[in-house]
Amino acid sequence: MLKNIDPLLGPELLMHLSAMGHGDEVAIVDANFPASRCAQRLVRLDGVSATEALTSIMSVLPLDQYVEKPSSIMEVGEGDSFAAITEEFQDIITTAGEGESTNASIERFEFYRRVEQAYLVVSTGERRLYGNILLKKGVIK
């Protein structure tokens, strides 16, 4: 155990987050997302919600201050209702001191393409629909 490190951030996840460079992206995805197919590097957090994973990751990951929207969520599809989890994502990012209104909304298949290019995919046990978010790593000044 390490002091002041969230216990959800195990050695593999911490190694990948640390290895990421400025502008690299990490995707936190729900249980329905095709993570194994899309991921270049995959860390599984089965049994952990996407919001728990985001809270843990935001405790160590700075977001990119040089882009307008350093985080991206999957756009709600036609016929689906508003996804409340997206507000929770923004609250977590704001609480972490990374700004308000940081989330861009991306069409579903474009989101998949972006995840395929992400440095890391964290697959969670999130069961709520649209429990997916991309984070662009920033720098520590």
Molecular structure report:
The chain has a domain at about 45-135: RbsD-like fold, CATH 3.40.1650. The model has no long low-confidence stretch (mean pLDDT about 95). Helix content is about 30%, strand content about 20%. A six-stranded mixed sheet has the order 2-5-1-6-3-4. The two termini are about 25 Å apart. The longest helix has 11 residues, at about 85-95. The protein has helices at about 10-20, 35-40, 50-60, 85-95, 110-115; strands at about 25-30, 40-45, 70-75, 105, 120-125, 135. α3 runs parallel beside α4. With about 140 residues, it is of the alpha/beta class.
Itemize the secondary structure elements and their pairings:
Blueprint: H1 11-19, E1 25-29, H2 35-38, E2 42-45, H3 50-58, E3 71-74, H4 85-95, E4 103-106, H5 108-117, E5 120-124, E6 133-136
Helix pairs in contact: 3-4
How many helical stretches?
A: 5
Question: Topology as H/E string?
Answer: HEHEHEHEHEE
Would you identify the CATH architecture of the domain at 43-136? 3-Layer(aba) Sandwich
- Unreliable parts: none
By CATH, the superfamily of the domain at 43-136 comes out as: RbsD-like domain
Characterize the overall form. Answer: globular
Share in helix? 25-40%
> What is the strand arrangement across the widest sheet?
2-5-1-6-3-4
The end-to-end span amounts to: 27 Å
Sheet with most strands: 6 strands, mixed
Give the tally of β-strands. 6
Mean pLDDT: 95
Percent of residues in beta strands: 15-25%
Summarize the structure.
The chain has 141 residues and is an alpha/beta fold.
